Amino acid sequence: MAFFGLFGNDRTMADTTYSDRESASEKASRKRREAHHRNARAADRQSQAWEDTERRRQDRWGRCGR
Q1: C-alpha to C-alpha distance for 44 and 50, rounded to whole angstroms
Q2: pTM, full prediction
Q3: Got the DSSP string for 29-45?
Q4: How far is residue 42's CA from residue 51's CA, in Å, rounded to a whole number?
Q5: CA 42 to CA 34: how far, in whole Å?
Q6: Where is composition skewed (Basic residues) in this entry (predicted)?
Q7: What is d(CA 19, CA 7) in angstroms, rounded to the nearest whole number?
Q8: What distance in Å separates the CA atoms of residue 46 and residue 40, rounded to the nearest whole number?
Q9: Mean pLDDT, the chain cut into blocks of 10 residues (66 residues total)
């Protein structure tokens, strides 16, 4: 009945057995940060592409836009 030996020692197990592992909340926050940075980079690339396209369009037709 080793199962009954687990009651009350969860903090001890967390300090020893799982000390080298990333916690679930730390993992979730890391993934959230990574996703935010990934989305920010994608939005930046998209806005830069729009700016380049707009600049080419204006240079082709002149600044007045016809």
Answers
A1: 10
A2: 0.47
A3: HHHHHHHHHHHHHHHHH
A4: 14
A5: 12
A6: 29-40
A7: 19
A8: 10
A9: 64 77 91 92 94 92 61
Residue 42's identity, in one-letter code, is: A
How far apart are the C-alpha atoms of 64 and 58, rounded to whole Å?
8
| DSSP conformation letters of the chain | -GGGGGTT-HHHHHHHTTTTSPPHHHHHHHHHHHHHHHHHHHHHHHHHHHHHHHHHHHHHH-TT--
Contact at 8 Å (CB) between 65 and 58? yes
- Name the token pair of 24: 């679930």
Q: For position 2, what pLDDT does the model report?
A: 56
